[in-house]
Amino acid sequence: MGETRVDLQHLLEDLRDAYPGALEETILTEVVANSLDSGATRLRLLADPVTLTLTIVDDGSGMRRRDLVRYHDLAASTKTRGQGIGFAGVGIKLGLLVCEDVVTETRRGKEHVASRWHLAGRHKAPWKWIPPLGLVADHGTAVQLKLQNALSPLLDEGYIEGALRRQYQPLLQPEFDEVLTAYHPKGFQFEVNGRVLERQSAYGADVSKLAVCLARKRKAVAIGYLVRSELPIPEDQRGLAISTFGKVIKHGWDWLGITPASPDRIAGMIEAPALAAALTLNKGDFVRVGNRGALYLGYRKAIQEAVSKQLAQWGDARESDDKAGRRTMRPLERDLETVLVELADEFPLLASLVEQRVGGQKRLPIGRSGAAESGQGVLAASIMGGTEGSEEPGIDLTTPQEPCTMQPSDEGAQGEAQRESESSPGVAVVPGAKARPRPGRYGLTIRFESHEGDPDLGRLVESTVVINDTHPAYRRAVASRSEGYHIALAVALALARLAVPPAEEHEFVTSFLIRWGEALDGIRRKSRKRS
User: Fold this and answer.
1) Would 379 disulfide with which of 136, 342, 403, 430, CB 3.0-4.6 Å?
2) Distance, CA of 362 to CA of 343 (rounded, Å)
3) How far is 334 from 424, CA to CA, in rounded Å?
4) Is residue 191 part of a domain?
5) Does the pTM of the predicted model rise above 0.85?
6) Is residue 529 part of a domain?
7) What's the structural domain count of the chain?
8) pLDDT, tens digit (0-9, with 9 covering 90-100), for 482-531
9) Residue 161 has pLDDT above 50, yes or no
10) Is residue 198 part of a domain?
């Protein structure tokens, strides 16, 4: 009889590569995520360069003895999807790659146990019970990492604080108390080497608050802000970040599909707890297919419209984002989506960009009856309040009843909200129950940006192909009136990196251009039928 064996080291290394950041920051981020999932209100971190240890202690619910046994199994978890931001204790398990051993102590009720764990080879990670070290007082869990490298950043107090502020920014800003109080009613506090991290409010020349509300809900379920600075913002702080349960999932402008005219002077953050249901398996990104993908895309659309209108109010919107420009590009986008639908059977990875149906569009399941609780209801994203220094009073997020209340059962009220969204800057409404259903854009979009010196014709960001309009080939295409072919080629090259391995990119581009050329015959046939 044979036996299935697992190369644990190789598996952990692959798991490490699934996260975009540094290994040390991933370890720290995931350990904190597990503490938040356990209901902790305080997290104490002690870095000791002398003993090469990092000790992390929380006051959460702790684990029972049988739970600590399962804790040592890879991918074992008792969490329900959509109700947490940690992934099967992966932070501790990745710690085996950089630690001599990992000590875990936990206390729940009368059960107070501890274990020592280490990686003994490619196929073995033995652990054993040890007497508790006394790290946990009444209840909670403590983890002590004995690091192999004396120069590890996990021993640096400054690095630890910087990583916590980057990855858990909403927990350290009072702007998000309104929505996070429901999940952390007693608040949350970080303590690094005996020093409590101070909470800091958003600041800048202009600060505009954002809110996202669901139908029949008076309280905002997602809130945030947009900041404009007079001076360039540090590169790692630029763009709009989105978080759930206080953990930052994505950051920058690429995920949103919108780039302001001065991207180096604008930043922001929005917290959307309901999007925990749309997180990928490793909690490092959002799903883009199926009902959970539609939930994410619905929130993204609302945020896009709110941010676009605020940028327009500031006079910082790009010309290419104007409605006239979008109307010009839509026929080309529909043409390219038709090609992608036909190619999706041959190249399955393209299915994440378009649904396999004529037109490449999908009706987002938002606004169906009974969907409000799961986040699939009416989304109203609105700017709440004015900017700093303005005389116009803003609306306090602690009482968002007036701007957020929408009655989907009253068609007149919903129509009024829709008209208000069209006239007021920074207001975005996604249609919901009892409104005329409209197909949400679920396919490919095209955007132009200037990237001097970039050799690529374009690049794929989320479901958007960004065309480099400063590329010499694009300028030549404009001069010769062949922009359509250039855009099609740029789209093909950008999608090739997603659809096939590098060695097969040429064959994919050839297939794409053949289908693109054949699509013209279909357009002509449809035109004759209309005639």
Assistant:
1) 430
2) 17
3) 30
4) no
5) no
6) no
7) 3
8) 888 888 899 889 888 888 888 888 998 998 888 888 876 665 455 455 55
9) yes
10) no
